[in-house]
Amino acid sequence: MTEPLRVPAEVTLPELTFRGVLLGALITVIFTASNVFLGLKVGLTFSSAIPAAVISMSVLRMFKDANILENNMVQTQASAAGTLSSIIFILPALVMMGHWQGFPFWQTLGICAAGGMLGVMFTIPLRHVMVVQSELPYPEGVAAAEILRVGSAERAQDDTQASAKPAATGMGDIVAGGIAAAVVSFAASGLRVLGDSVSGWFALGGAVFRLPMGFSLALLGAGYLIGIVAGLAMLTGLVISWGIAVPILTAMGDMPAGMSLAKYATQLWSSQVRFIGAGVIGVGAIWTLATLFVPMARGVKASFSALTKAGAARAGSAPRTERDLSAGWISVVTLVLVAILVITFQVFLAGAPLSAGAIWKLVAYAVLFAFVFGFLVAAACGYMAGLVGSSTSPISGVGIVAIVLVSVLMLGVGGELMAVQNGVQMAIALAIFSTSAVVAVASISNDNLQDLKTGWLVGATPWRQQVALLIGCVVGAAVISPVLELLYNAYGFADAMPREGMDPAQTLSAPQATLMLAIARGIFTHQLNWTMILIGMVVGVGLIVVDEILKRTCKVARIPVLAVGIGIYLPPTVAAPIVAGALLAWLLEGALRRRAAAAGQPYEHYADAANRRGVLIASGLIVGESLVGVLMAAIIGASGTEAPLALVGDGFESTASYLGLAVFVLVAVLFWRRVMKLA
């Protein structure tokens, strides 16, 4: 008997199994560590739903009684934890400002787990309205369901044709990408026989220009996943920063005696031009949220309407595929999570030189803000994820709005705190910590409904999925603190080095956390670089105008303003390989379209297998390099030296750079050939 691709409500199969939870936890550790590393390095995270589904199918295939619903639970748990790593968009700011010297495990666990689990609780009432009844596309959720269906159909075919060779799940593509990236990354960051970047510097008059290129395979994979539109937007940001802004500033200034062109230009970019990027990002975030205001309002309205007596009555007599966690369980879990938040904030403020009453008042304000604003954000992000997808839903924009609102709130109610010694520093820290809770809520809300859409399409039991999401939040939250601690001690963050003498070229830029800290400090101390930020805001408005014109005149060409800002803000050797990955995806799409036309077949059908392989290889590249980055962080931390495994000295740098370029090009060519084999 073959298993149907959507399990009917009257059929009950094992779903939330012990082996599934254990496998989900192991995948969670892998993708959370990978996303934390990638997010700190480049300010991007990747959706782990599809690779998690592929890994789950490959492993559970060894068990004869495994089924599509069990696979769905594994990918649900793993994708939730991977998404929770978006907390790194804000939490490292506490280390950057010196409030934390590391990442306290229990505080980090409390804020991540409680915030993420509240995101699950807040979006449960939305499931019926937004997933079952809505026509929202949910791109990642539908794609993950299709992966599970294909895998289930192939499993059923294998069972009926015992002599046939088992159909491929795609695990080989993830492994191939992971091994390639791991080997190259170890040779570069461990053995130091391959360079990680190269830059060409030249001057025209007094203007300094830079042609950068990085050789990170993880960023090549990230660029492939974000696509040509976002890639060209980041290229636009690179041109604005290193083709316009830096040359103008270097031409207007005088280079200090004895300073190299590279150091002079980089210093100006770091202290001036990056704030142009911050202005563009701020405008882009506000514009994105403004354009989605109506859908966000619908999401909030749906959330309130779902809490009516009719909704509760429906849940009581619902078939298996319609049973959410009961209102009683939602209430109990929510109260427990609020209590955890209260304890976490109280511990966070325990060292403040304030009376117990003043501390509890601040705790109440912070928790109330995180709860109320988090609820609104959950509904908004749930709708945005369904509308435009989790990968393009602007979590950074939500964080910017939250940090502004909570900072203004602290200015209004934190007078007693501001009056004590170092009170401003503590107020900034509290604003960042409060925003961390909101970002945790937003990130999980952004992912939750995608997973529930996948479950609905394959016939899963919603309440079991919701339990899997809660488990994923706890496991992911437990991983985040030690991984952050490892990476910080090994590489350091922008403007925050744990030890003297560390190589600034190896630091993790953590762009969103740097920006959030700058905004909070600017609100409390009035010390923002407003000139450059205002220039960036003007540039952002101009880009929005151009984008709207393109929207009306050209269906394909667009300029995502947020991506342009990130291109300005990121180190150029980080942004460049992302652009290369996006270009690779575009060239592959063009080649596949030509072959489809020659074969007389629709592109979507002809290129489906090839495009799936490309996504899995790109995900493997990210995972492989990221895990080696975490491994090297552990080795560096244990040895206490910057390059404990290096085989060559500084004199090999030039040769290593050219070798790194050659290997980068070779991997891109092999990537192309492996994808095109399926065409």
From TrEMBL:
Q: Pfam families in the record, alphabetically? A: OPT
**Which key words are in the record?**
Membrane, Transmembrane, Transmembrane helix, Transport
Q: How does it sit in the membrane?
A: Multi-pass membrane protein
Asked if the Swiss-Prot or TrEMBL record annotates the protein with the keyword Membrane, the reply is yes
Q: Which residues cross the membrane?
A: 20-38, 45-63, 78-98, 105-126, 174-194, 201-226, 232-252, 273-294, 327-350, 362-388, 394-414, 426-446, 466-488, 528-546, 566-588, 615-636, 656-672
The molecular function GO annotations come to: oligopeptide transmembrane transporter activity
Q: Does the keyword Transmembrane helix apply?
A: yes
User: Cellular location of this protein?
Assistant: Membrane
A GO CC term assigned to this protein in UniProt: membrane
Question: What is the protein name for this chain?
Answer: Oligopeptide transporter
Q: Which organism is it from?
A: Achromobacter arsenitoxydans SY8
